[in-house]
Every structure is written in structure tokens, then in C-alpha cells.
Amino acid sequence: MMARTLDDNAPRGNGWRMAVWGAAACLLLLPLAAMQFTAEVKWTGSDFAVWGAMLGIACGTCELATRMTRNSAYRAAVAVAVVAAFLLVWIDLAVGIIGAENNPANLMFAGVIAVAITGGAMARFRAPGMARALVATAIAQAAVGVIVLVRGLADELAPIVVLTGFFVVLWLGSAWLFRRAARAFAV
């Protein structure tokens, strides 16, 4: 009989988790380092708090998905959805997608995130329902883009079209991965 080593008791994927949380810590400290070298970066305590909360929520969601299932398609779907939500919120808060970050029209993107969260909760985070929720999120993202274009809310149209397309692809990619995960659970 072989003796057990300490590594036998270690949680699987621990290296990846440490890398993700370590990268988040580095990203949290990056603006602080940048502030030492340039006057262009001027973050306040609240900026760091929001950034830290965003990183914590994103990493925590991925961590939860990793602990909930070993299905790699489900994990990848969560990761893609988290990246899409993170980038959407980050861009919207940092510089604003529609004009400046304080433009009230940017609040429409909060509705996109609300569709994703509400749809996920209604689906109880099960793969088939998550696939439908992420398709609904892609539709909401496209609807915001259409509203911006039709109402003439943006000074430049090309960035809106490109960003809308980018996020729709991410949401649909996540939906596809959730559909794939649902098929694996059904077998």
C-alpha cells in the first residue's frame, strides 16, 4: 500500500485558484503602482474599493463555479460570462460607453447585467436555464446598442457597434458553453 502524501489531500486545481486570486491582487495594486510613476492616474479610496469589489465578485463567482461542478464546459461558460460582465462594468464605470462615464444613458448597461443576474437566479444556475438567460442577455445587449444608434445618443457610432458586437459574441459564447454543459449533464 502506498503512503499518502500531503499533495493527495490538496484540493484539485489549487494552483489555478491561487493564480487567479494572485492575478486579482496584482490588478488591484496596479493603479497604486501607476500612481507612483505618473500624474495621469489619480485614484481615490473609493476607486480602489469599487475595483476591489469588482475583482472579488468576479473571482468569487469563478471560485464558486469551480467548487460547484467539475464540468469544464460549465466552468468555461461561467468564466466567459464573468469576463463579459466585468469588462462591461469596468468600461462603463471607467470611461463610459456612451459619451462620458457620467452620461445617464450608460445606466442601460446596468440593465444588461440585471438581465444576466436575474435570468441566472431564475434558472437556479442550472446549465439549460443559464443558456437561455445568456441568450436573453445577448438580446438585451443588442437592444441597448440599437437604442443608442436609433436615438443618436453616441457621438461616434463605430465604437458602439464594435462594443455591442463584442459583448453579444461573449454572451452568446457563454450561452453556447452552457448549452454544451447541459448536454453533458443530460448524458
Low-confidence stretches: 1-10
Radius of gyration: 19 Å
- Which sheet architecture does the biggest sheet show? none
Q: What proportion of the residues form beta strands (DSSP E)?
A: under 5%
Look at the helices and sheets and give the structural class.
mainly alpha
In oligomeric terms, what are we looking at?
A: single chain
Number of helices: 6
In whole angstroms, the N-to-C terminal distance is: 35 Å
Helix content: over 70%
Q: What's the overall average pLDDT, rounded?
A: 90
Characteristic key phrases:
mainly alpha, 187 residues, single chain
What does this entry look like structurally?
By secondary structure, this protein is mainly α. It has helices at 14-37, 45-68, 72-94, 108-122, 127-151, 157-186. Helix 2 packs antiparallel against helix 3, helix 4 (108-122) runs antiparallel to helix 5 (127-151) and helix 5 (127-151) packs antiparallel against helix 6 (157-186).
